[in-house]
Structure formats: structure tokens, C-alpha cells
Write a structure and sequence with these properties.
The chain has 589 residues and is of the alpha+beta class. The protein has three domains: 2-239, no CATH class; 245-340 and 514-589, no CATH class; 344-510, no CATH class. It is 38% helix and 15% strand. The protein is built from 22 helices and 19 strands. Strands 11-10-9-8-7-15-16-17 form an eight-stranded antiparallel β-sheet. A three-stranded antiparallel β-sheet has the order 12-13-14, with helices on one face. Strand 7 (259-265) and strand 8 form a beta hairpin. The chain crosses the membrane at residues 486-508.
């Protein structure tokens, strides 16, 4: 104990152990992380006598007591109050955890991580924790952070346990449980036991991944968790425990889940529809469900989805080729591509480095131009009944999940709606996203203006703002001469209508997507960046498909999870299986 305490004195708590040359100090840093986790969970029930107090206490408490002493002394040196706060509902983050949160709270669970996680049994002294209990306990501790010890492999789970996480690259930098929103357990005094009784396993895990606070900007760091594919029912989870991930991926996933695979080979794409284990767990309302409503994400949406028929009872295959400016869909319909609208390569590069305010502004202008181009070209090449129906269709492409199109509390929370937006959404009976798109369309002529055009502004804003609100916006915009007229309006309008958030969604979510319009008047999206032999896997109910890529391993090759494909485009409505057991026929509405 003395040795560990002495090591701790020489360590900046939560220092990355791999960056520490002294092995003993690195070990202490790992141990201190472990101690914090055990202390929060109260799982280590091994009691020992503390030499200083001559009292019997749990080993974890005893070790943390030593940490307390060091942190308190260090805190006083720094002139701050960074001591531990007892209890699961600690409202602050102390010196023990702040760097941890900054470093690790940036990535959501991905599909294969969940599959592997179901095999984990974490040992704490004489106690064994199942994955389900681990998740529930994590609801109370995730804001404090921490690590669990896998004694079988002598490693810190979620750090360097190759046994469970060898599919991940740069685990140290990218992987952690996300922040949690929308769960009463974090804001009330409810116990872990009462939380388990109130929430099913599925909703607990789903709450764990519904994060709106991630800071990640790279697509691979924004992977969405497909937890509901691997829920606690034995028939859904059981196959994961024994699955051989060295098999060809087509075989692996047909063993346990309803899935869609898209294998790429140069410019050729093949669809594989696979039937297997159904999903039987009840889900929260915000989770897309095949039996009710889903925004299936595929490489392309077409008007004749109902023409897709299974060649056999268990699978179907179609080839799609991209040749220059034309989109060829064999077996369905020959569709010419009238427009192919995308962010420029320079715009994408700026987005990747948008910490520079100047570059971010340029990226937002690119996003505004992208949206204006899509609207204007769609007017010429589509046959929607009026401008409102066209804007609604474009809105559904940008935000493909169905619940984002329905006015109401969930829609307002999803878009962090301003009070004025809530009022307008209710009075006009439209979603906040569509409201923002309407106003953007009205103000888009300012992109070509060199000065503020009062007439354009009044035409766009008079239906939604009061006279005094309009005057306030114009006054604020006139005080921003260093911005372009359009961006000055975006900033000035922000207390009432958040167009910045609207454009930022397009910038972040669509930088790897291409919007297109076919000669049949269908709107859609495709994604870029696939390599030859990549596989894009789409799971039942997933908000986004996942890219799986070949990698060398032990003298051979196996497929490893690469990241999300981000394909949420829709053509002319939402589609879902008519026969959800065989997944052969689709309906477009």
C-alpha cells in the first residue's frame, strides 16, 4: 500500500499509462482508475484493516482512502476543492476524473463491441458481475468514469484487453461508454435496484447510448450502437457467445441477426438480404422498429422498392453500378441521374478541421450552398405538388428518422428548439426541422447579396416574427459587418430561429454523403469512401449501416468493424417490410 501511495505522488492522476516510462508508475495509474470504479460500484466486498485508522473496511475503500489523502493534499496545493464526493449521484467531477472525461467520453458503442461485450464476466475479488449488471451499475457511475478489472486476463477492461476488443483500433483514444441523457437515474436518488425494476434491460442499454453530447467529429468516432440487436433474450444473445468471427462475415451474421450486407467490388455493389433471428424486445418510442416505422438506410432508395423480390426464400441479390453521371439499377428500373450534388473536397477538408472559426464559417457557407442547390435543382427535376411538399421531402432526406418529422416534444428536444421555434412548430403544426428549412429557403437569396436586403429578410421572416422581433434581428445583423449578409442573419436570428444548428447538422452528418435526383423525380443520397471488398452491414432497426473492412490477422484475413457508413437517405417516403418474417417485399408510402 505504501509503495502504491508513493507512486501516486509522482503521477498526474489519469495520466495515460502508455505515456509513462516508469512501469511502476504506469501500474499505479491503472490501479487508481480501477479503484475509482470499484469504489463507485461498491462491488469489492473483501475487508481489510487499515493501518492508519485501525479500522476494518473494504479493500476498495481502503485504497481509495489513500487516494483521497493524496488528492486532498494536491488539491490544497492547487488552491481548489477537488475531493471525492461520496454517493452515486455526485454532481461534480473531481480532479480524479476530469481528464478522463475529456479523453474518453467521445465514442458510442458499435455493433461488434456489443457482441463481444456480452461475453464479458468481470471479476472483483470474490464477486462476479454479469454484463447486464455492469450496464445498470454504469448508469450511476459513467459520469464519474472508471475502469473494471478482468482478472482472468490481468487487464483493464475497456483499455487493453485484446481478448475482447481486438477489433478496435486506437482503443485508448476512442472507446468509452457515452454520456447518458433522458434517464431519471442520474437526476434522482433512485437506487440501482429500483432502476433495474423500472427499466427493462433493453431500455437501460438504449438509454446508455442515446447521447446528444458527443464531441467527436470523425465519422468513425460517431459510430452508433446497435444494442437493441443484441438484447438480453437468450435467443438473441446466445448465438453471439459462440460465434466464430474468423468465418466469412456473410456466414457470421446469418447465424444470429436479420441483416443486410452490401459488398463492394470497385464500382459494383451487391445487396444481400438475410433472414435469421427476429427481434422480440419492446423498444422505446424513439427507436426505429421494423414492424411500425423505420428509416431503412441503404446505398440508394428508389421509387420501386416493392419490385425487389427475393430470388430464394432466404436471400436476394441485386447489382448496382455507378458509371459516371448515371445511376444504374438492374432488375428494378433504369434511372438516369439528373443531378449529383455534393460538398466540394475543399469543403470536406475544412469540416475535418473546423476548430478554426474561419474554416468553420467557410464550411457553413458550403453547407448553405449545398442545400440551396438541392432545393433549386429539385424544383426543376421533380414533380412535387407545390413548394411545401418539396421542402418536406428534402427535410425527410436530411433527417430520415420518422420521429423527426412529427411535431411535438420529442422533435423539439431532438433539435434543441428555441422558445420561438416551439411556439411556431405548435401553431403551424410542422416539425422544428422543417420550420428551419422553410426559413433557410426564404433567406437563401442572401447568399448572393453583398449587403443586407431588407426586402428579402422581411419576405422570409414576416410570417414568423413579430415587428419588434424583426427590428431586433435587423439591428443585430447590422452590427456584424465582418460576416457575409447571410451569416450575419444566421447569427442575428439565433435567439429566435437556430439556423446555425440546421446548417451544422448538414455539415457534420452529410459530409460523406452525395445527394442526387433521378430523371424519375426521386430524391436520394449515396455515400462515398468505400474501398474494394468493403462490406456495409445494415442491422434491423439500425439508424445507420456499418462498414466492415478486411484486415490481416495471424497470417490470414478477417473482417473488422471500420465505422458507420452514414446513409440515411430516403426516396419518396418511408419504407418497411410488408412481411417482416421473410423481409422480401417492401412498401413505399
Amino acid at each position: 500500500m505504501t509503495e502504491i501511495y508513493e507512486h501516486a505522488k509522482s503521477v498526474v492522476i489519469w495520466l495515460n499509462p502508455e505515456e509513462v516510462e516508469d512501469a511502476g508508475v504506469a501500474r499505479a495509474a491503472r490501479l487508481f482508475r480501477l479503484i475509482g470504479w470499484l469504489y463507485r460500484l461498491r462491488l469489492l466486498r473483501v475487508y481489510e484493516r487499515d493501518e492508519q485508522t485501525d479500522m476494518k473496511m473494504p479493500r476498495a475503500t481502503r485504497l481509495v482512502t489513500a487516494c483521497d489523502r493524496y488528492i486532498e493534499a494536491r488539491s490544497q496545493q492547487l488552491g481548489g476543492n477537488n475531493t471525492w464526493e461520496d454517493g452515486a449521484n455526485a454532481s461534480h467531477v473531481d480532479a480524479f476524473n476530469a481528464p478522463f472525461l475529456n479523453r474518453y467520453f467521445r465514442r458510442v458503442w458499435t455493433v461488434q463491441e456489443i457482441a463481444m461485450a456480452h461475453n464479458i464476466r468481470v471479476y472483483y475479488g470474490v464477486a462476479t458481475i454479469s454484463w447486464q449488471d455492469f450496464v445498470v451499475s454504469g448508469l450511476f457511475t459513467v459520469k464519474q468514469g472508471g475502469f473494471a478489472r478482468n482478472q482472468a486476463s490481468e487487464t483493464d477492461v475497456f483499455r487493453d484487453s485484446e481478448l475482447h476488443w481486438d477489433l478496435l483500433n486506437a482503443l485508448e483514444s476512442h472507446f468509452v461508454l457515452p454520456d447518458i441523457y433522458g434517464l431519471e437515474a442520474l437526476s434522482t436518488k433512485a437506487s440501482i435496484k429500483s432502476t433495474k425494476n423500472r427499466y427493462t434491460l433493453g431500455t437501460l442499454e438504449l438509454a446508455l447510448i442515446k447521447s446528444k453530447g458527443l464531441e467527436a467529429t470523425e465519422p468513425k468516432d460517431k459510430a452508433y450502437a446497435m444494442l437493441w440487436t443484441f438484447l438480453g433474450l437468450e435467443q438473441g444473445v446466445g448465438p453471439l457467445r459462440d460465434v466464430d468471427y474468423a468465418k466469412p462475415l456473410d456466414q457470421v451474421y446469418t447465424e444470429f441477426s436479420t441483416a443486410v450486407f452490401v459488398r463492394t467490388n470497385g464500382s459494383t455493389v451487391q445487396f444481400y438480404w438475410v433472414n435469421s433471428v427476429p427481434r422480440n424486445t419492446a423498444l422505446p418510442s424513439w427507436v426505429p422498429d421494423w414492424s411500425v416505422s423505420t428509416s431503412m438506410s441503404l446505398f440508394v432508395w428508389c421509387q420501386k422498392l416493392r419490385d425487389f423480390r427475393a430470388a430464394r426464400s432466404d436471400s436476394l441479390q441485386y447489382r448496382i453500378g455507378i458509371e459516371g453521371p448515371r445511376l444504374l439499377i438492374s432488375g428494378v428500373r433504369h434511372c438516369g441521374m439528373k443531378a449529383f450534388i455534393r460538398l466540394s473536397a475543399e469543403g470536406r477538408q475544412r469540416i475535418l478541421h473546423n476548430r478554426d472559426p474561419g474554416q468553420l464559417i467557410e464550411a457553413l457557407i458550403d453547407a448553405a450552398e449545398l442545400m440551396r442547390s438541392l432545393i433549386e435543382v429539385a424544383k426543376s427535376h421533380t414533380s412535387y405538388d407545390g413548394e411545401e411538399s418539396l421542402l418536406s421531402a428534402i427535410h425527410r432526406i436530411i433527417h430520415s428518422q420518422r420521429h423527426l418529422h412529427v411535431p411535438g416534444t420529442e422533435d423539439q428536444q431532438e433539435f434543441f428548439a428555441r422558445p420561438k421555434e416551439v411556439e411556431l412548430s405548435q401553431s403551424l403544426a410542422i416539425s422544428v426541422g422543417l420550420l428551419r428549412l422553410r426559413i433557410f429557403h426564404g433567406l437563401s437569396p442572401l447568399l448572393d447579396e453583398s449587403s443586407l436586403s431588407r426586402q428579402v429578410i422581411q419576405d422570409a421572416l414576416e410570417p414568423v416574427l413579430l415587428d419588434e422581433e424583426m427590428d431586433e434581428v435587423l439591428e443585430r445583423a447590422s452590427e456584424l459587418p465582418n460576416l457575409t449578409p447571410f451569416l450575419a442573419l444566421v447569427v442575428a436570428l439565433s435567439p429566435f430561429i437556430d439556423l446555425y444548428h440546421f446548417l451544422h447538422i448538414i455539415v457534420l452528418d452529410h459530409r460523406d454523403k452525395d445527394m442526387f435526383i433521378t430523371d424519375q423525380g426521386a430524391l436520394g443520397m449515396a455515400f462515398q469512401g468505400l474501398q474494394s471488398d468493403d462490406i456495409v452491414a445494415l442491422w434491423q432497426g439500425c439508424p445507420s449501416p456499418m462498414i466492415v473492412r478486411k484486415a490481416a490477422a495471424d497470417g490470414g484475413e478477417l473482417y473488422r468493424l471500420h465505422g458507420p457508413a452514414f446513409v440515411d437517405g430516403i426516396m419518396l417516403g418511408e419504407g418497411w417490410p410488408v412481411d417482416k418474417t421473410e423481409l422480401k417485399e417492401f412498401q413505399v408510402v
